[in-house]
Design a protein that fits this description.
EC number: 4.1.1.31
Catalytic activity: oxaloacetate + phosphate = phosphoenolpyruvate + hydrogencarbonate
Strand order of the largest sheet: 1-2-3-4-5-6-7
Helix content: 55-70%
Radius of gyration: 30 Å
Structural class: mainly alpha
Strand content: 5-15%
Oligomer: single chain
Main location: cytoplasm
Subcellular location: Cytoplasm
Family: Belongs to the PEPCase type 1 family.
Amino acid sequence: MANRNIEKLASIDAQLRLLVPGKVSEDDKLIEYDALLLDRFLDILQDLHGEDLKETVQECYELSAEYEGKHDPKKLEELGSVLTSLDPGDSIVIAKSFSHMLNLANLAEEVQIAYRRRNKLKKGDFADENSAATESDIEETLKRLVAQLNKSPQEVFDALKNQTVDLVFTAHPTQSIRRSLLQKHGRIRDCLAQLYAKDITPDDKQELDEALQREIQAAFRTDEIRRTPPTPQDEMRAGMSYFHETIWKGVPKFLRRVDTALKNLGINERVPYNAPLIQFSSWMGGDRDGNPRVTPEVTRDVCLLARMMAANLHYSQIEDLMFELSMWRCNDELRVRADELHRSSKKDAKHYIEFWKQIPSNEPYRVILGEVRDRLYQTRERSRHLLANGYSDIPEDATFTSVEEFLEPLELCYRSLCASGDQAIADGSLLDFLRQVSTFGLSLVRLDIRQESDRHTDVMDAITKHLEIGSYRDWSEERRQEWLLSELSGKRPLFGPDLPKTEEIRDVLDTFHVIAELPSDNFGAYIISMATAPSDVLAVELLQRECHVKQPLRVVPLFEKLADLEAAPAALVRLFSIDWYRNRINGKQEVMIGYSDSGKDAGRFSAAWQLYKAQEELIKVAKQFGVKLTMFHGRGGTVGRGGIESLRAIPWIFAWTQTRFHLPVWLGFGSAFKRVIHQDIRNLHMLQEMYNAWPFFRVTIDLVEMVFAKGDPGIAALYDKLLVSEDLWQFGERLRVNYEETKRLLLQIAGHKDLLEGDPYLKQRLRLRDSYITTLNVCQAYTLKRIRDPNYHVNVRPHISREFMEISKAADELVKLNPTSDYAPGLEDTLILTMKGIAAGLQNTG
């Protein structure tokens, strides 16, 4: 199968794949990977649902491919006739099949990218296929920094040691793949990669092929749809699974790659294990901006859950380290500590897999690590008890309560090994573990808290009214600042338990009490959305003090609306002009800039430019006051951002992405370009120079070009025809004319004849998916029509697989998975499956 020519691809006729580009390079195996997965899936589909249903899948693909070739809307109507003739169970199976094939295409692509990177590394070619910085070209990146910035390798190393990238996790309501499926997809990806290994034996190949088929079938048999909405705690567990499966081991591996690159640059020193190159934060369970499900209790739960997961990960690794550090020779400092522990130890714990008896004194490193293991066990169990019961009998002093306390015995082992001539051993698994402890600490991630500024205003208003000094809400900004600074400079309690509290006020104050109750290393920043003035920041500082937060969180104003971005530099000047606040921040300030509301206010192009200008101005202000500024980019995952009055960013962007029109991404670009070129034709040359010489402008244009490559105005027209009233059809046509004109101008500015001319790899991958996505788009549009118009007439044929009673029954069972739907049987699940499949194919949600 691996050597099968594209014309014989899988069991779909050759004409169906004539649109697919051939190999892009000699090491391009994407077509082979995709063909193998598709072939295995179609065999499974036939076994489970019969030959007729498999042929219907092929018929749908053929009609989609014919549409992609000529963009003839009649082909979409023919495809619609096939899809609407299916009975409910068969309709679900078809939608599920195409969604599954797109997920398999994604896995083939991931394996291909990894394969090409390995090949490039072997050849000494460090350039990524999309010129993106990846682990494969760390060395080349450092070399460019030395050459282009005219800095010495030592200066680059010193800068590297003192910088931090904070990666922030957030739960995405439109995440389209369940965790159960993600795990199965990981095993499919591993099987595919191993199948194409050079040294594979015939027996290995046969067993891997069987495993591959088994995992593909297991994924197809798994319900893709979440039948109950996830709680914030569920979202946290799902997000943290990435640490267990990837990030935990990925961080030390990445840092070793950095060490290697530095060594090749002439730096004979490793990145210090406590250098904070990377750290991780999370909004899951902390982002309460407009989300009533995120309560103080939820915040407490997710913090304890993260601590339990962190202790579990550390604990799972400690016995491996005990096996490795079997040496008897050590320095005096470690020998004294080991002897003390050996004399006082009582090994009665039976929960250990290894080393459950008392460790001999001639294995001093194991004695030290045994004590670490005992305390990690207690740390994990205490968090588990607190999470389950709210209390624990395990005393806090039997656990690790700070990262410094946890690192101390590990650092002792490291120093001893180095002093005993065993630095090579110290720089092995022990160094990796030290780096993991430094990066993840006892909390795994730091939880950011986000709350709206108006909610803090409500609390302050309640306090000032209770004190009978007026209404905080009605005060001017100057009056607010004067009162807040007066209270911050004083020591008296601001309010007591008799403060009248609404549910909303109680929620805000209880959140601060949770922050005060839990260890400080659980938390990162306190982010104020819709921040406009210094008083918004000072109010949070005062609430932290009043609720007895021992180590106050850094307070981060979020500027998002266009007017707020424009006013942000002036707001920062006023904030930094306050002596009390400058002393509080100790020369460091973080500011978050948001992308959704600015896109809503001004459109993507104007918003992108305002975000760019705001960053420049904010940096100037920070330098003026001698403050080191950290920018927090609330970017999100899609090119388009924004929304409308009645829809927030996620559903707004999700809808335009699903219909393949992507309107929020490109609307306004064409008009702007047309106007400036009309004013002076020489401006076209200037725009082309900007594209070639200005990274910001080039990236902006390239992202829009990529979205155009994913778009299809013909598909958008089908949605209009089926779902929009006829009096609006002309408006839709005008938008599609605008779409084509914008695309033409975009290509002209980029100097391209075709979309993605400069990125043949991405172009290949997108075209490989088109016919799958088109089938799902047509299925979605007609399903929506049937949901909205119950009188819409369709001719439903009998079960395709009616001659196979058990197979037919399997399709009927799919309908029964959703017994409480408000719509006709099968329609809701079919619709959801098309949404998931299109999101998988476009690799964008909302």
